[in-house]
Known about the structure:
By secondary structure, this protein is mainly α. Helix content is 69%, strand content 4%. The chain contains 7 helices and 2 strands; from the N terminus they run ββααααααα. The chain is globular and about 50 Å long. It starts with 6 loop residues before the first strand and ends in a 9-residue tail after the last helix. InterPro entries: NMN_transpt_PnuC. Keywords: Cell membrane, Membrane, Transmembrane, Transmembrane helix, Transport. Belongs to the nicotinamide ribonucleoside (NR) uptake permease (TC 4.B.1) family. Pfam families: NMN_transporter. It is found in: Cell membrane.
Amino acid sequence: MNWLNSQAFTLLGQRIIWSDMIGNILGLITLALGWRRSLLTWPVQFLSGLILFIAFYGHLAGSAGKQVVVMVVALYGWWQWNRNKGQAADGHIAPRFATWRERGAMVAAAAVGTVAVALLFKAYPSLSWDPWPDAYIFVGTVVAMYAQARGMTEFWIAWLLVDLVGVPLNFANGYAFSGFVYVIYGALVLWGMRDWWLRSRQASQPVLEGAPA
């Protein structure tokens, strides 16, 4: 599987690595499926994590370990969506706004988790090249995926916050394809957030007595 870490081609003077390209293409597909609230979101996310795990295993233990967590959360998301499918009129899950308690819990978990993971990365330098931003992206990704698994519209905001750090970090670490793809990510996130936001608002509005369902 060494070919996953070899150069696929060069784009605008940047080396494009096979694992980076394949993982991000699958990430785009995952995001698009998440926008449509398709159950296939999670198997594709799992496959993306598996490919990146294979690419990192043996020389980037920290990155490989992070993909294991991503795959576990993907399994949780599949279980949650499979259990709650059919709630919406179109047969998919019904998006909702998180409660203030849930929002506070996720912010606290992100803050504490980032500090804890960053300290772990600093204690074991082989796990990460950039401990703090790497920890922020990793923990933010897990929080976003958890919120998505629970059907919370706020998961789109979490993805945007992750992208703000992820784009420059990917370019700095030589993963140019990730940086280019994040431009498309941003557009998909904004469109997906709008769709989920409107659906959540509609679901939260009370139905007047005698009005058609």
